[in-house]
Amino acid sequence: MLLRADHLHYAYEEAGHLHDVLQDVSLMLQTGERVALLGSSGSGKSTLLNLLGGIDTPTQGAIQIADKTITHLREPDLTLFRRQHIGFVYQQFNLIPTLTTAENILLPLELLGFSQQEQQQRLAHWLGAIGLSGREKSFPDQLSGGEQQRVSIARALIHQPALVLADEPTGNLDAHTGQRVLSMLFELAAESQQTLLVVTHSKTVADKADRILILEQGMLHDEDMQGIAW
Amino acid sequence: MKLRFCLLFGLLLGACDKVPTEAALDLTAALGGQAAQGFSRATEPRSFRFPRDHAAHPDFRNEWWYITGNLSDGQDQRFGYQVTLFRVALAPQSPRSQSHWATNQVWMAHVALTDVRANRHWHDQRLARGAVGLAGQTAQPFRVWLEDWQILGTSGGEFPWTVVVQTEQFGLQLQLQPVKPVVLQGDKGLSQKSEQPGNASYYYSFTRLRTEGEILKGDERVRVRGWSWLDREWSTSALGDGQVGWDWFSLQLEDQHELMFYRLRRHDGATDRHSAGKWILPDGQTRSLAAEEVNLQPLRYWTSSSGRRYPVSWQVTIPALQQQFIVEALVADQEMATGIYYWEGAVQVTSAAKGESLGYGYLEMTGY
Amino acid sequence: MVTPLLLRSSWRFFTHHPWQLWLTLLSIALGTAVMVAVDLANMTARQSFRHSVTLLAGPMTHEISAREGDIPEQFYTRLRIDWQLRASSPQLVATVRVAGLPYTLLGVDPFAMLFQPRAGLDIPAATLPRLLTEPNSALISSELAAREKLTIGDRLDVTIKQARKTLTVVAILDVKQDARLAELLVTDIATAQSLLDKPGVLSRIQLRLDNDQATQLQEQLPAELKLNSYQSRQQSFSQMTEAFRINLTAMSLLAMLVGAFLVYNTMTFSVLQRRHAFAVNRMVGVTGTQLFRHLLLEAVLLGLTGSALGIVLGIILGQGLLVLVTQTISDLYVSVDATNVLVTPWQIMKGMGITLLAVLTATLAPALEAARVPPVLVSRASHLEHTGKRISNWLLLVGIIAMAMSPLLIGASARSLVTGFIALFLFIVGYSLVVPGVLKAILRGLLRIPTDSLYQRMTLRGVQASLSRTSLAIVALCVAVSATVGVSIMVGSFRASVADWLEDTLQSDLYISATSGDSHIDGELDASWLPRVQALPGIASISTGRNARLEVEGVSVPMLVLQPGAHSSRGFEYLQGDPAAVWQAFLLEDVLLVSEPFAYHRGVQAGDHLTVQTGKAGRVSLKIAGVYRDYSASQGMAVIPRRVYDKYWADRGITTIGLKLVKETDVAAVAEQLRRWVASSDQAVMVRSNKTIRDFSLQVFDRTFAITNVLRLLVIIVAFVGVFSALMALFLEKSREYAILRATGITPAQLRRLVLWQSGLIGLLAGLLSLPLGWIMSDILIEVINRRSFGWTMQSYFFLSLPLQALLLSVLAALLAGLYPTQRISRVSLREGLHSL
Asked: Does residue B97 contact residue B118 with C-beta atoms inside 8 Å?
């Protein structure tokens, strides 16, 4: 088991009112498992993803990843943990505009202190894997949306994190491109036995998943729910 | 007698226009009372000697050479003029100093010209210390001057006198020669002003001076002739209690009589009993006039721009002499807007009964 | 027209970026404040002088004084009576001391001023009798009365020359409206003559004359007297201090220039930030023109608010500067005294106007840019860099042309100071325009250096990418720092030159000088000093000096009458002529020496002849033997041999005795002996060693440049605020990018380091680029501005510490500016960061 989240609560205060976003959410992800997280807008999907990725901390509850409880970690340790174990793919790609394709991809390796040789080897591999060999010197604004998302997938996976979190990775892409990018994400994750949690609205994404979780009004319902109409 | 010392001090004090004139008058009275110590005083009649007494008497506090006159160009132009030089001693003694500027003597001059035909009246004033040649007097030759305004006699100190005045508006160059002997005013020249002993002046007049010369109006030079009147007075006296002003007449009649009369006005408007005058006969003989012998009746008033209301037409009645005439200002506005405001101007004398002209003269009114 | 909704959206933009709003307002306000402050201080100082001229003159227009000594009093009587000039007032003036402080004893004839309307002095009429008749009676100021606790009738001790005299207070003048009256003791002229032991003479006669009268009087006037108009005195003050005022104004305009750069930067930035919003606006139908107008309106509102703030600040600042300005003018030119700045509506309007103009000009380009935003949503943020490229090439060209024009302008403008400054500014602006291009080139070069460090690349790339938002701030910082470098080099060189000059000029060991509280009239040593000093043991040689004024072709300049001693060697450092020959001529012929500023301003050189007004021989033509280096009188001065002076002037007084001691003599002991004499003599005499004088002179020098330092600091502050706001806005805008980095695994400390590296690099670049500009600026300041202002030349010195200081300054400024944003970024939660924008 890679991830275990127990009784997560998340609430924020706005204008004196407490808004519950997540209420008693528990889940487990197995190593290598590919899970889709569904839910309507505002159901708390992104929040859950942030909690699981160590970007935000829950109001209550605990998260354990690779046998390590991250809920009590302090920020620098959390950062180091994130750096090592988690890869992110965002809806808006979120590439660093001032870095080239190659540099964006290499960022995690650089942060983890990989040797130059190792870095170059992996880069070559990943450029090939995402089909952007020869484009390594391009800046993000010189790439199409699909290409940018592929770069961001490579950046999320290159350091082989145990957990890859993707927040609507196809949301900003057309259907066809989205399909291709998604396939790539699933395949590449499978290759390295990485656990993948994808937040999505898309039925096609859900179809590829081993398991489907549905988040509704802050509550997580179990997989295989048949009542959801697509 | 003219209580012109008040004017004098008023001017000195009021020279700074911050000091209101009324306050200046009050202050004058106070100063006059105190500062008299150390000066000579007029306590008893003296024997006048000429030309010596034409010159200054610096041991007295105040002194003046007061000339007024009515002149004509022989045709249709009439003029009145006034040239007065005042001397004031600020202290009994001159300060001891190596500086030539050090002096206790201060000089002031008022000059005026009335152009009857133009209905205009111009006047000017000056002040200077009696030092470094700016102002002063000498007996022989006779000379009294304030800068270039001056009265000059002969080298022996005698008449004829020459009056030289030049202001921005007008100029005077006149020769004066008396045709009547000196008149000693009051009691043989001692003119008592109030009860207080010593509060009196020495006072003499030349009531009829034949006058010839030139008047300058702008660029125009006018040859004139006529009659002038000289008053000389020196004293260490002050205004008496309750006196607020005076009306002073010096009239020269065509029948060769002259009248001098001053009425001192009290607070309540009544005539002070020290008011007095003289009636001068053609041969120079004089008759004193007491306060109650002359009746003055204002007939018409004129209000000046300074707000003062002066009577500019009078009926003068002297029952004892069987005289009654009307004295009328030749120009209404003959106000002297100097450090102190007063009215001094040329007047015409007409018969009250028949209305025919009897002569001309000068009228001075203060305290209005 | 501009729509309310647009305005509301602007308002929201700025309220959501409060730092940006406040810093923009602050940089506008500071620019305005410095400009207004200098303007106010300048004008107040000038007004104060005009006032001091008119104070005692009242309605008077002219003044008669003696070319040498005093006026015989008979002349006044003649003037007033014979020449009919009755609007005239005789006066006797001298400096006396009350409780050790200098006061002006003014003897007047109260009657002369009696009928003058609004005469400067209002003597209460009631005091006239006492003033005239009581010995030693005087009017004093309410200030003196308060200080010495005096009332009417009290006695007051004054020291006149050596003697102690007692005055009686007869009136107290209210000096509330006029501080200048505070230093007056007014007496009757007779009292003054007797107190000063000067019977028969006057110091001056004030007159009210029209032009015809003045011309006529000028012709009638005896040769030994001269007539000056107060207007010409005011004019000569204006001329004299013009260079100084222009220098200050230029400094303040530099602050405004820096401020304008910053406004440009901020407005450009705000347009870039709102590009998306503008695109949406355009889509819904807002026209480009509307956007343009809207942005200009925004600028006007910002400009109005900022300049209003700036004017308040400027008045406060001006109050502070006034102290420095009057101090400097008093040190360099004539004594002026002003305690409160005068604020006129005109100056407020001027300050606001210039600011608005600068703000509008600075907004023009960004507003045009906004108007050109296409009605298409562009999601790629760094598109912005492209439009910049085209413009920056143009700017580069314009900049190079401007820089090239500058020396041409200097060459073509002869002695015009204003043109000199225009050339300087042209160069600065030209350089500024080139800076962004150069920056780009430098960064491109740096990026070519192969490196394995992603950090390094991220730092460089970050700076490179931010240029469109920061380059103007960098330019502003660069200009400000270069001004510091340039002015420092100039002042440093100047100071070193002055120190050298003092070393050369002060050849005696000890100086005995008569002093006087009034800087116009120099004291005179008692005649007994010279023989006494000569009799002292251990004296090697003696020189004497007489400080006086010399009228050269209608203009009065300071003159030193020098009787050189054996130790005077060649006297001075000569800029023209063979030193030995010059000195030979000075010792033997009817010649004079003129100082460098004199030669520069009058356009004369060694060998020329000058017509001077002498005391007893009328006009005399003297040959200029040489031109010597001098930093003491900016308007120039002349040195005349004592021998020549004695021949043409009646004055036999001396002001200073210089003593050269035999080598082994104890200088301190001789000085001690001299001081004992001084103590017993009661005359105001100073005994100083050459070191004391040198130190004092350098102290005055430093005081003179205190205002320059203050202004320089202000310029730096303005630039700092600009860099701060630009960097902060930049970093705040990048918060999303930083959040990604954080999510990817960068620790807050690493991120902080990255940002600080970037800001440090920006500072370093600004610092490096400021060095050439600073150096060239110092050259222009020394060779053009200083020469045209004061007429003196100086050695250019290089100070190693300066470039280091400049680099340190700009790096520090940039680092400080980066500090807050980094603190903020690491505090902001990742979640917010990722979702912002």
From this structure: no
Cα B189-B190-B194 angle, rounded to 5 deg: 145
Per-residue pLDDT for C229 more than 80? yes
Which of B273-281's residues contact partners 24+ apart within 8 Å by CB, and which partners? B274/B192, B274/B193, B274/B194, B274/B240, B275/B246, B276/B1, B276/B186, B276/B191, B277/B249, B278/B183, B278/B185, B279/B318, B279/B321, B280/B180, B280/B183, B280/B207, B281/B256, B281/B257
Q: Give residue for tokens 């920061």.
A: C470
Q: Compare all CA atoms of chain C with the CA of A102 and give the residue at the minimum distance.
A: C454
- Give Dmax over CA atoms of chain A in angstroms: 54
pLDDT greater than 70 at residue C690: yes
- In C321-381, beta strands by DSSP E: none
Question: One-letter amino acid identity for C502?
Answer: L
Q: Name the residue in chain C with its Cα closest to that of B338.
A: C115
Closest CA of chain B from C92, distance in Å: 12
Of C548, C502, C527, the C-alpha closest to C689 is C502
Return d(Cα B264, Cα B275) in angstroms, integer: 5
> Which pLDDT tens digit goes with each residue over A72-109?
888 778 888 888 888 888 888 888 777 788 888 888 88
C455: exposed, middle or buried (C-beta count within 10 Å: 0-12, 13-18, 19+)? middle
Q: Which pLDDT value is given to residue C178? A: 61
Q: What is the percent of chain B with per-residue pLDDT over 70, rounded to a whole number?
A: 89
Query: C190 at the B interface (CB within 8 A)?
Result: yes
Which pair of tokens denotes residue B305? 């721009």
What is the average pLDDT value for chain B, to the nearest integer? 87
Chains A and C are touching, with contact defined as 3 or more CB–CB pairs separated by less than 8 Å: yes
- Answer with the residue of higher pLDDT: A176 or B13: A176
Separation between Cα atoms, residue C18 and residue B363, nearest integer Å = 85
Return mean pLDDT, chain C: 82
Find, in chain C, the residue whose alpha carbon is nearest to that of A83. C745
3-state class (DSSP) for residue B221: strand
pLDDT of residue C527: 82
Which pLDDT does position C828 carry in this prediction? Answer: 63
- Could you give the CA distance from residue C724 to residue C657 in angstroms, rounded to a whole number? 58
**What is the C-alpha to C-alpha distance for residues A180 and A191, in angstroms, rounded to an integer?**
16
Q: Which residues of chain C make contact with B27, given a CB cutoff of 8 A?
A: 126
Which residues are CB-neighbours of B35 under 8 A, at least 6 positions away?
B61, B91
- Quick check: do B and A touch, 3+ CB pairs under 8 A? no
Q: Which residue has the higher pLDDT, B120 or C28?
A: B120
The pLDDT score that the predictor gives to residue B328 is: 96
Bridge partners for B310 per DSSP: B302
Token pair for C551: 């009228």
C328: alpha, beta or left? (left if phi > 0; alpha if psi -120 to 50)? alpha
**Element spanning B109, H or E:** strand B105-115
Tens-place pLDDT, residues A161-209: 999 999 888 887 888 888 888 888 888 888 888 899 998 877 777 788 8
Reply yes or no on whether the pLDDT at A132 is more than 80.
yes
| Residue C124 C-alpha, separation from nearest chain B C-alpha, in angstroms | 7
Mean pLDDT of the region B283-298: 94
Q: Which among C76, C115, C190 has the least Cβ separation from residue B97?
A: C190
Does any CB of chain C come closer than 8 Å to the CB of residue A161?
A: no
Strand partners of residue C797: none
Q: Give pLDDT, residue B18.
A: 30
Average pLDDT on C130-142 reads: 89
Which C-chain residues 54-113 have CB contacts (< 8 A) with chain B? 73-74, 76-77, 80-81, 84, 86, 109, 111
What secondary structure does DSSP assign to C297-337, as a single string?
Answer: HHHHHHHHHHHHHHHHHHHHHHHHHHHHHHHHHHHHS----
Segment (H or E) for A148: helix A145-157
pLDDT for C188 equals 93
